[in-house]
Amino acid sequence: MNKDITILAIETSCDETAAAVVRNGRTVLSNVISSQIALHTLYGGVVPEIASRKHIEKINVVIEEALAKANVTLEDIDVIGVTYGPGLVGALLVGVAEAKAISYASKIPLVGVHHIEGHVSANYIEHKELEPPFLCLIVSGGHTHLVIVKDYGEYEIIGRTRDDAAGEAFDKVARAIGLGYPGGPKVDKLAKEGDKHAIAFPRAHIADAPYDFSFSGLKSAVLNYLNSCEMKKEEVNRADVAASFQEAVVDALVIKTMAAAKDYHLDKIALAGGVASNSALREAMSNACELSGMKLYYPSPILCTDNGAMIGAAAYYEYLKGTRHGLDLNAVPNLRIGER
Ligand code: KG4
Ligand code: ZN
Q: Looking at the structure, do residues 268 and 196 belong to the same domain, yes or no?
């Protein structure tokens, strides 16, 4: 029988200090997340310098808690997995330095993980039957990608945003209507009280790039709408704005994802990243998949936003493929998907 592979995974690419213990890529023994959201809310967004300092303060405690909750010690760990990009360089460096130190001191192999590949791999945790190939829509605060997952760790990007990421658009619109940071979950909640057909916001069509996205025009349309209401001294129905904006984002995401799945003959679609927990996106994608006879997968909300478990899942498949990193592993803030 093959030996179990137990991975200690570390994630510090943005504003969550996270560590997890994951067995064989799919079984989560612990998943500890120390969120800095409350701190950054004071400034209306993530302040990189503060994020790095907080990671330094929290990283050891979070790792110790992850090991304790999993009821293991470093002696039981076969691999250290760590996010080394993309993300905020100072934030990434904390996790990478920590992972290298543990790897060196305990002689445990080190595997660097791409943050976005981690988001994709979050789907493997709760859907034990999910295996490549499948189409994945990755929608986070910093990225919007349509990717064909050809095999474990093998990706082909077929679409991407030309400007703002979907989560970024949610955060900016939330700020404009006074909801604060992080905006996505707040827009999602308020939209439930609004009429999604109240305001006709635009959907971008990009010639010759049917799977690319653009959200900056939509964001400007929302800001123009708010400005014109203010000039005309008309009261703004914030719930209608939230619902109509969200509908425009979801519409674009669903139409392009479904078109790509059909064109590439893929009958399995997965959602990944923070925006994958959006209730309207989940509902619209579920309906579209049901109509087309396709199977839809998405992680629980806690595994959609940044966490260590998804890094452990991705690290496992990288480890099986033979990926090993040395003590020269560095943070790569603009690491591209599929790059090693
Ligand atoms: O994946 P993630 O945790 O971080 C990045 O890697 O960027 O995603 C965070 C993003 C934020 O922009 C946040 O507003 C958005 O995901 N988000 C949502 C929801 N929950 C989180 N957007 C829309 N609806 C939600 N329910
Ligand atoms: Zn993320």
A: yes
Residue nearest to atom 21 of ligand 1 (CA): 274
109 lines ligand 1 (CB under 6 A): no
Residues 92 and 212 in one domain: no
Question: Does residue 335 lie within any of the structural domains?
Answer: no
| DSSP tag of 268 | E
In angstroms, the CA 122 to CA 140 distance is 13
Residue nearest to atom 10 of ligand 1 (CA): 141
The number of folded domains in the chain is 2
Residue nearest to atom 18 of ligand 1 (CA): 184
The 10s digit of each residue's pLDDT in 212-261 is 999 999 999 999 999 999 999 999 999 999 999 999 999 999 999 999 99
* CA distances from residue 186 to 81, 139, 249, 298 in whole angstroms, order as listed: 32, 17, 15, 20
Ligand 1 in contact with 12 (CB < 6 A)? Answer: no
Closest protein CA for atom 7 of ligand 1: 141
Both tokens of 126, joined, read 């709760």
| pLDDT, tens only, 56-80 | 999 999 999 999 999 999 999 999 9
Residue 86 in contact with ligand 1 by CB distance below 6 A: no
Regarding the beta carbon of 306 and ligand 1, being less than 6 Å apart is answered yes
Tell me, yes or no, whether 285 and 188 share the same domain: yes
Distance of CA 199 from the midpoint of ligand 2 (Å): 30
CATH code, 220: 3.30.420.40
Residues 143, 66 share a domain: no
Alpha-carbon gap, residue 177 to 190, rounded angstroms: 11
